[in-house]
Design a protein that fits this description.
This protein has one domain: Rossmann fold, CATH 3.40.50.970. The protein has 12 helices and 13 strands. An 8-stranded mixed β-sheet has the order 2-1-3-4-8-7-13-9, sandwiched between helices. Strands 10-12-11 form a 3-stranded antiparallel β-sheet. Strand 11 and strand 12 form a beta hairpin. Helix 1 packs across helix 7. The chain is globular, with a radius of gyration of 21 Å.
């Protein structure tokens, strides 16, 4: 068996508006288990970036350790990439973003990488409203170390080995809402129709965008007692809305029944159209989102879709009022204020 992907592509493959074929957004052949939900998420990222006409070299992919953190090798092969140590991806993303604000930052993590060793890193990326898309491939177990329960495993869920988890699981969506994240969503790796527009909307958002994607582990956590299995997730999903994404340049022609839809304009002029499935729900109301999340948990539902978005979000560079030019391109001429300015500064300390 070979893991080398053939370089030949049919010359007549359709291309997007900037001349790239979908194959230009792919990576190497995946070595994950056959049927792994992570591969479906990689495919959704490829589809979203292709449809959004994103230049691959403008994307910086970052990850930590785990099955999920292998996936940046499987998409956007011509993008920048950095595979950090376990749980430290948000710090690396923060440093890179501070140095070059012109790149599009896409962080990929897992439930162990985020909710255990990386939790302290995760929460500070949120509170700083770092301008990035943070995707958690959440399977509730440690796939690389033979399926132990992770911190997101639900209390009472049964592992493949037969042990029952006695601890309450960490809800990353609820945590992100509590900490003030400005874009919070949950999806399912088996629902590409929902996941692709969510990724596109998150990439257009100015600030920290979390998508917690339930991604069943087919090898260690797809058994009858697991609450992260394909069957369980499909049986308990409760979608908030049907999602459509309209880029800035396209005329908005979609119409829904009065009172049943909402359009959320993002900072770049693109619009997220939501055809409501949940009565009385508005994704711009943070308190209502937290209440709806708690209600779903009490009723045994897995809430998916765009849970909350702040259209007026100010990302980190706006908060600290940094220069518009990327810091890594500044020269001594811009960085040195000159002798007269330095003398004034020194006078303040005398």
């Amino acid at each position: 068996m070979t893991y080398i992907k053939p370089s030949f592509r049919h010359p007549e493959l359709p291309k997007n508006d900037i001349g790239y074929a979908k194959a230009d957004y792919e990576g190497v052949i995946s070595t994950l288990c056959a049927g792994c939900g992570h591969d479906s998420i990689s495919g959704a990222i490829v589809q979203a970036c292709y449809e959004m006409n994103i230049q691959p070299h403008r994307v910086a992919k970052l990850s930590g350790i785990g099955c999920s953190s292998k996936t940046p090798n499987y998409f956007l092969n011509n993008s920048h990439g950095f595979n950090s140590v376990h749980g430290r991806m948000p710090s690396v993303a923060t440093g890179a973003n501070m140095a070059n604000r012109d790149l599009i930052y896409l962080g990929v993590s897992g439930d162990g990488d985020t909710a255990s060793i990386g939790m302290g890193q995760f929460v500070h990326a949120i509170r700083r409203n770092l301008n990035m898309l943070y995707i958690v491939m959440n399977n509730g177990c440690y796939g690389l170390t033979k399926g132990q329960d992770s911190a997101t495993a639900d209390a009472g869920s049964v592992s493949k080995a037969g042990s029952t988890n006695p601890f309450e699981g960490i809800d990353l969506v609820g945590t992100a809402l509590e900490l003030g994240a400005t874009f919070v969503a949950r999806s399912f790796s088996g629902d590409k129709t929902q996941l692709v527009p969510l990724i596109k909307a998150a990439l257009s958002h100015s600030g920290f965008a979390l998508i917690d994607v339930l991604s069943p582990c087919v090898t260690f956590n797809n058994n009858a007692g697991s609450t992260k299995s394909y069957d369980y997730v499909r049986d308990h999903i409760e979608a908030l809305a049907e999602i459509g994404y309209v880029p800035e340049k396209e005329e908005i022609t979609v119409e829904y029944e009065q009172g049943k839809s909402v359009g959320v304009a993002l900072h770049d002029g693109s619009v997220v159209h939501l055809q409501k499935l949940a009565d009385g729900w508005d994704p711009r109301d943070r308190q209502a989102a937290m209440h709806r999340l708690q209600q779903a948990k009490a009723e045994g539902e897995i809430l998916t879709g765009l849970v909350y978005v702040n259209p007026d979000s100010k990302e980190l560079h706006e908060v600290i009022n940094s220069v518009k030019q990327p810091l890594n391109s500044l020269t001594e001429r811009e960085l040195c204020p000159g002798n007269s300015a330095l003398q004034l500064i020194n006078e303040d300390f005398r």
